[in-house]
Amino acid sequence: MVKRLVEWLIRRDLRRAFRRVAWVGAPPALPHRAPVVLYANHHHFYDGHLLWLLLEELLGRPGTLWMEDWDRFPFFAAVGVQPFPPGEGESDDEAAARRRATLRRTVRRLREQPQTALVYFPEGRLHPPREGLLPFPDDAFERLARLFPERTRWLPVATHIAQTGDARPTVLLSGGEAHEAPDGRERKRLRRMWNALRETAPAEADTRPLLGGARGPDEQWDLSWTAPFFERYL
Questions:
Q1: How far from 41 is each of 26, 79, 197, 222, CA to CA, in Å?
Q2: C or N terminus of the chain, fewer CB within 10 Å?
């Protein structure tokens, strides 16, 4: 019951914030019994919501995500979100212990439930799109790969908020080709995809709808019948 409520809240927030959410291109080809790490850019407050929606609507996989502000929103644990505190507001030792516990839980889930997908934001923090793609931590992918199952696949996912002329923006998501062990080119892959997505015109792209959002006033109202009354003010 709690899980359904949290899922409803996520969808409600997305519908209120965006006109639509769509996937660009063909769905990614992923092995059925292999864990997946979705690594994505982090430019919008709702990035976690959007990647959860992608798992639900397109990939059909249970997911988990690491969240710095988990203590403020612990109910997201019902949909797989785990605490990953930065160390501010509590001792560094305590924060580090909680991060290690989250990492152990994640490794266990990937091994015991191989359909699990980890949503990973390698930039490490939310930041404006004008800053581009921030550098990834040195050896972060390699360290994770040593802990995760050998059959884990790594899938770059780019997100872009497109202004289309509607009252609310459209979200575009796109994925590259899933690859095996990290090879140091992860940032290059993601940056190339993100740049391509920014040049995509939603009306012309091959898209798959993931969610329809609230319509703007221009789509809901037509008051042309009142024109004769207001013509007196011309």
A1: 20, 21, 12, 39
A2: C
Q: From the CB of residue 51, how many other CB atoms can be counted at a distance below 10 Å?
A: 22
CA-CA distances (angstroms) from residue 47 to 50, 97, 120, 138, 159? 5, 26, 11, 23, 8
Q: How many Å apart are CA 186 and CA 135, to the nearest integer?
A: 11
Rg (CA), the chain: 20
Q: Which pTM was predicted?
A: 0.91
Positive or negative torsion for Cα 64, 70, 71, 73: negative
Q: Assess contact for 134 and 25: CB atoms under 8 A.
A: no
- DSSP H or E segment with residue 171: strand 170-175
pLDDT tens for 83-95 read 999 876 557 888 9
**At a CB cut-off of 8 Å and minimum separation 6, what does 226 contact?**
none
Contact yes or no for 155/36 (Cβ under 8 A) = yes
Domain architecture of the chain: domains with CATH: 2-233 (3.40.1130)
DSSP state, residue 99: H
Q: What torsion do the CA atoms of 24, 201, 169, 227 make, to the nearest 10 degrees?
A: -130
